[in-house]
C-alpha cells in the first residue's frame, strides 16, 4: 500500500504512511537481512566463556562491559519483604540513538537490522546506534560504530529527544542509557549502510503490532515521540480529523491532552509522595552469599527453579562489529506480561499506571504498567499483583496484544506479552492508592523528564504509537 502525503505533513502523517518510494518494504527488508546474516549461537557453561572469570562475581578480564554480582534486598513494597538475587551491574551509560529526517516531507527514521544473540527472533529493527562505551571505544577490538558522530557532535542538528532512562530494574542495578533522537536537515545527505533503512512511523507501527520485530532498545527511544506538537519532528499544527481506526484516534487525542505544566507538577508531587511512602534498601554481596541460589561453573540458578538463571553463550555473527565472542546472559522463566488498562473519561483516553518499587532503580520507584507480572518469581497465588484479573479481560476489550523481546544483548529468550486493555466507560476499576490515571500526553512528558517511567511501561507506550 502506498499513501501520498503532502510535504507539510508531520509525525502524525508519518504514522499513517505505510510505504513510500524512498523506503523499502519493512517486512521484506528485515527478512532479507536475517537471511544474509550468518550466525551461530550456542549455550555453553560459564567456565567455557573466553575472558570471563567466576569468583565472588562474574566479570570480564578487561574490567569493562558488565559484571554479575549478588544483591540483598529489603523493602516494604509488595508481598515479599526480603530476598537476595544475582543482578547485572553495568555502570556504563550507552547511547541508544535514532536519526530522523524528512524524506519528501515525511519524517522517516533510520533503523538498523541488528542481530542480538538472545532474541527469539534473532534479527530485529534496532536504533541507528546501540552501543556502550566499551563497544564504541572498541575494547572488543572490533569495527567502529556507524553513525556514532551524529549523537556525539550535535552542531547544526535538532535534538528531538535526549534523556537518561532506566532499564530492567529487576535484573540490572542502576542501569541507564542515553536515549536520543536527532533530526538532520532534509537536504543533508546521510549515507545508508547495508543493514540500515529509512522507515516511516507507520511502518514501525506495523512492525511493533506484529511483535518481535523492533527490539527493546529501539522501543524505549521511540517512546519519547508524541503526537503532541513540539514533542517530535514538527507535527501538524492543527488537530483535525485523524485517519485510522477509532482507538488510534483516541491515542492521538490522549497524546494531545492533559499534559500542561500544572498536570506535570501534580504528577511529580504525587510520585515524590509515593517515594517517601515506601522503603528500599539494597546491598551488593558476593554470589556465594545468595542462600537460595546455586552458583557454579555450569551456571547460576535459583534452587527452586524460580525467577531466572545465568548461563553462557558462544556467538559467531558476521554482521556484528566483532565476528565471534562469548558472554553470560540472563534467561528468565517464561510467561512475563505487561498490561495497560485504559478508559475514556470526558471523551479522552487515560491509562492506569502504578508507582512501583524495583530493586535496581536509581531512585527507588518509577511508574509502571497497570500489571507487570513475572510468574516465574511467584511463590504462590498470594504473590499475584493487584488487578491481575484484567489479564483475562474479554477479547472485545483488547486493543493490543503482541509478544516483544527484551534486550537480546543481555537476556536470553526473554519475551514479554504486551497487552493494552480498554474497559467500557461505565466500568469501575478498583485500584490501590499507588495507582493513578494519566493521559498519554502526561505520561510522555514524564518519559521526557527522566527517571519517572520504567522501561516496561515505555515499551508499551511505544507499541501504542
From TrEMBL:
It comes from the Bacteria. GO terms for molecular function: lyase activity. Residues 27-225, 267-464 form the dTDP-4-dehydro-6-deoxy-alpha-D-glucopyranose 2,3-dehydratase domain. Residues 226-245 are annotated as: Disordered. It holds the Pfam family Hexose_dehydrat. Gene3D superfamilies: EvaA sugar 2,3-dehydratase subunit. Transmembrane segments: none annotated. This is Oxidase EvaA.
Amino acid at each position: 500500500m502506498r499513501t501520498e502525503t503532502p510535504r507539510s505533513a508531520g509525525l502524525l502523517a508519518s504514522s499513517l504512511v505505510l510505504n513510500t518510494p524512498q523506503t523499502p518494504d519493512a517486512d521484506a527488508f528485515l527478512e532479507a537481512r536475517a537471511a544474509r546474516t550468518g550466525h551461530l549461537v550456542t549455550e555453553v557453561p560459564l567456565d567455557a566463556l573466553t575472558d570471563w572469570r567466576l569468583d565472588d562475581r562474574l566479570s570480564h578480564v578487561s574490567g569493562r562491559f558488565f559484571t554479575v554480582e549478588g544483591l540483598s534486598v529489603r523493602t516494604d513494597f509488595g508481598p515479599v519483604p526480603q530476598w537476595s538475587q544475582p543482578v547485572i551491574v553495568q555502570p556504563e551509560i550507552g547511547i541508544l540513538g535514532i536519526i530522523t529526517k524528512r524524506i519528501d516531507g515525511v519524517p522517516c527514521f533510520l533503523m538498523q537490522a541488528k542481530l542480538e544473540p538472545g532474541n527469539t527472533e534473532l534479527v530485529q529493527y534496532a536504533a541507528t546506534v546501540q552501543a556502550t562505551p566499551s563497544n564504541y571505544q572498541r575494547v572488543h577490538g572490533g569495527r567502529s560504530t556507524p553513525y556514532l558522530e551524529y549523537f556525539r557532535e550535535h552542531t547544526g542538528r535538532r535534538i528531538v529527544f535526549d534523556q537518561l532512562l532506566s532499564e530492567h530494574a529487576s535484573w540490572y542495578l542502576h542501569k541507564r542509557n542515553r536515549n536520543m533522537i536527532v533530526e538532520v536537515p532534509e537536504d543533508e545527505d546521510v549515507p545508508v549502510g547495508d543493514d540500515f533503512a529509512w522507515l516511516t512511523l507507520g511502518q514501525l507501527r506495523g512492525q511493533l503490532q506484529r511483535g518481535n520485530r523492533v527490539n527493546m532498545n529501539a522501543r524505549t527511544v521511540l517512546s519519547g515521540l508524541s503526537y503532541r506538537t513540539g514533542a517530535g519532528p514538527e507535527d501538524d499544527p492543527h488537530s483535525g480529523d485523524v485517519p485510522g481506526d477509532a482507538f488510534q484516534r483516541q491515542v492521538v487525542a490522549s497524546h494531545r491532552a492533559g499534559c500542561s505544566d500544572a498536570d506535570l507538577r501534580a504528577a511529580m508531587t504525587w510520585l515524590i509522595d509515593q517515594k517517601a511512602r515506601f522503603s528500599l534498601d539494597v546491598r551488593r554481596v558476593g554470589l556465594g552469599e545468595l542462600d537460595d541460589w546455586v552458583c557454579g561453573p555450569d551456571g547460576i540458578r535459583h534452587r527452586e527453579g524460580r525467577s531466572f538463571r545465568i548461563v553462557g553463550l558462544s556467538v559467531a555473527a558476521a554482521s556484528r562489529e566483532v565476528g565471534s565472542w562469548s558472554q553470560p546472559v540472563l534467561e528468565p522463566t517464561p510467561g512475563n506480561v505487561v498490561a495497560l488498562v485504559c478508559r475514556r473519561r470526558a471523551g479522552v483516553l487515560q491509562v492506569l499506571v502504578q508507582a512501583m518499587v524495583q530493586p535496581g532503580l536509581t531512585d527507588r520507584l518509577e511508574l509502571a504498567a497497570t500489571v507487570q507480572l513475572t510468574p516465574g518469581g511467584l511463590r504462590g497465588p498470594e504473590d499475584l499483583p493487584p488487578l491481575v484479573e484484567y489479564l483475562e479481560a474479554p477479547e472485545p476489550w483488547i486493543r493490543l496484544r503482541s509478544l516483544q523481546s527484551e534486550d537480546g544483548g543481555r537476556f536470553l529468550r526473554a519475551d514479554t506479552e504486551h497487552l493494552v486493555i480498554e474497559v467500557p466507560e461505565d466500568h469501575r476499576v478498583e485500584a490501590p492508592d499507588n495507582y493513578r490515571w494519566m493521559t498519554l500526553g502526561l505520561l510522555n512528558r514524564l518519559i521526557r523528564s527522566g527517571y519517572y517511567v520504567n522501561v516496561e511501561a515505555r515499551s508499551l507506550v511505544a507499541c501504542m504509537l
